[in-house]
Design a protein that fits this description.
The chain is 36% helix and 21% strand. It contains 12 helices and 15 strands. A hairpin with a 5-residue loop joins strand 5 and strand 6.
Length: 384
């Protein structure tokens, strides 16, 4: 801020979570009837409090991930330091200050908004389902029939979510979901694959191998999505607590008052206070096969957007059987990238861009790589 000439003296002192700030002011005491209780700085954010209450046994290690699951999903790692690399910027992750000097390496993902909006769509048609019924319908639907990109902007605020999902599948030459169960299953399988994609990017950034995913928040009650997440990511999922934000907030204050000493102890209290459910990976071969199909879909749909050539030339989509990352290549005059894909993917799409009145035309085709037996996807964009 000093470099930009911004006055730093206008900001209050930065304190760490759990700092005692003083006692409640007399005017608030008189108006509320409370006593002059201690005012304590919490984790300063609902996600921060939720992560503090993740019931991991591995505090201090980076071999676990979390998903704060609700209308939106926030997926990340707890690390002792921030990651401020070009690749972190390209993956669009954040580094948020946490408890005890930790950092939340975090990615925002679409969450159960897809399901919530489908439910509203059904209700507008006079069909009222509770969430338990919708999960049963999805469980009975055919798996991997259609997939979508949960973070496509078209799903942020559509006029009708069910219609938008059907249009997306139609435009990407997939079977169009007709029944309520098919729509919900399409959304949830796609969301679980997006979790895997983000997880692999986080692992690459941190250099750590994740052994378990903790899902907390209201979304952890969705047992079908929990199982799908375990299947897609290939690691166990531990679900709970539902009220992680509340528990994290209360227990951080209790620690500040001397009731607890360490973050490890705080999380032990959470483990002993809530019923946790574990979901183990199943059907790995089918989930791995369809994960590659999901990634291929994202490559094609992302390259097919109407956008500027410069924006697309600034990024290369790098696809590996073990991880997925978005890497900036802003120094390239054009755009050429070689990424692994399944054999047989051949597609050409036209992308109409706007820079300098030109037209961007992406070409996707399989091509031989320097490594024997490896087949790649070439994506090249040129202005015309």
């Amino acid at each position: 801020m000093t470099r930009f000439g911004l006055p730093t003296e206008i900001f209050p002192q930065v304190v760490t979570p759990g700092t005692k700030l003083g006692r409640l002011r007399e005017n608030i005491v008189s108006s509320t009837g409370l006593s002059r209780i201690e005012v304590i700085a919490p984790a300063t954010h609902d996600t921060g409090a939720a992560v503090a209450a993740v019931p991991t046994r591995n505090t201090g290690k980076a071999n676990w991930a979390y998903i704060s699951s609700g209308t939106w999903s926030l997926m990340g790692l707890e690390l002792p330091h921030a990651i401020l690399t070009e690749e972190a910027l390209a993956q669009n992750v954040t580094n948020e200050g946490g408890v005890d000097g930790t950092y939340r390496l975090l990615k925002n993902i679409m969450g159960l908004w897809l399901i919530q909006e489908c439910k509203r769509s059904f209700e507008r048609q006079g069909k009222s389902f509770d969430y338990g019924t919708l999960m049963n319908l999805a469980r009975d639907a055919k798996p991997f029939r259609s997939l979508l990109n949960p973070d496509d902007n078209r799903f942020l605020k559509p006029d009708d979510m069910a219609t938008e999902i059907r249009n997306y599948c139609r435009e990407t030459n997939q079977p169009v979901p007709e029944s309520e169960g098919e729509l919900i299953r399409c959304a949830m399988e796609s969301l679980s694959f997006k979790y895997r994609m983000v997880l692999e990017g986080l692992q690459k950034l941190s250099g750590e191998e994740i052994e378990v995913i903790h899902i907390v928040g209201g979304g952890c009650q969705n047992t079908l999505l929990n199982q799908m997440t375990a299947n897609a990511c290939g690691v166990p999922v531990i679900a709970g607590p539902v009220e992680a934000t509340v528990l994290g907030n209360i227990l951080l204050q209790a620690r500040a008052l001397g009731e607890l000493e360490t973050l490890h102890e705080l999380r032990e209290v959470v483990r002993n206070s809530d019923s946790l459910l574990e979901f183990n990976p199943d059907d790995q071969a089918k989930w791995n096969e369809n994960y590659h199909r999901f990634l291929e879909l994202l490559i094609v749909t992302e390259s097919g957007k109407t956008t500027s050539c410069n924006l697309i030339k600034a990024a290369a989509l790098e696809l590996d059987s073990n991880w997925w990352a978005l890497q900036r290549r802003s120094n390239l005059p054009g755009f050429h990238d070689y990424s692994r894909a399944r054999p047989g993917l051949r597609r050409r799409d036209d992308l109409h861009g706007t820079p300098a009145g030109g037209v961007c035309r992406p070409q996707l085709r399989t091509t031989a790589d320097t490594q024997p037996g490896r087949l790649c996807l070439e994506l090249s964009l040129t202005g015309a």
